[in-house]
């Protein structure tokens, strides 16, 4: 399992609309093959910054999702709120705590 970790900076003033659009998109991820969880976190330190964390079976599952109509719908819902293109990385579990 891997985590897709996306840093998303949104246009100032569009935070509430972005959060609503991301919530509307949650079923798209829930239904996606290989997707186990979707979490959206707002930065405490940086206004308008969010962290989207999605648990996937593999990088390949994430990349396959990007070729679906569901991904296109996700982008339709949220992309108008982006201040810049998201920065995306994949995290590999290395330690579990408490």
Relative strand content: 25-35%
SS elements, strand count: 4
Q: Main β-sheet, in a few words?
A: 4 strands, antiparallel
Helix content: 25-40%
Run of helices and strands: EHEEHHE
Structural class: alpha+beta
Number of helices: 3
Radius of gyration: 13 Å
Averaged pLDDT? 97
Shape summary: globular
Q: Which strand order spans the largest sheet, edge to edge or round the barrel?
A: 2-3-1-4
- Report low-confidence residues grouped into runs of 5 or more: none
Distance between the termini: 18 Å
Q: How would you describe the overall organization of this protein?
A:
By secondary structure, the protein is of the alpha+beta class. Helix content is 34%, strand content 30%. The chain contains 3 helices and 4 strands; from the N terminus they run E-H-E-E-H-H-E. It has helices at 15-30, 59-65, 69-78; strands at 2-9, 35-42, 49-56, 87-91. Strands 2-3-1-4 form a 4-stranded antiparallel beta sheet. Strand 2 and strand 3 (49-56) form a beta hairpin. Helix 1 packs antiparallel against helix 3 (69-78). The longest helix has 16 residues, at 15-30.
């Amino acid at each position: 399992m891997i985590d897709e970790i996306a840093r998303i900076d949104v246009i100032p003033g569009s935070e509430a609309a972005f959060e609503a659009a991301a919530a509307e998109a949650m079923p798209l991820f829930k239904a996606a093959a290989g997707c186990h969880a979707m979490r959206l976190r707002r930065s405490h330190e940086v206004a308008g910054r969010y962290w989207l964390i999605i648990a996937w079976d593999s990088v390949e599952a994430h990349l396959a999702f990007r070729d679906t109509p569901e991904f296109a719908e996700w982008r339709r819902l949220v992309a108008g709120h982006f201040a810049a293109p998201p920065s995306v990385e994949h995290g590999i579990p290395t330690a579990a705590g408490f």
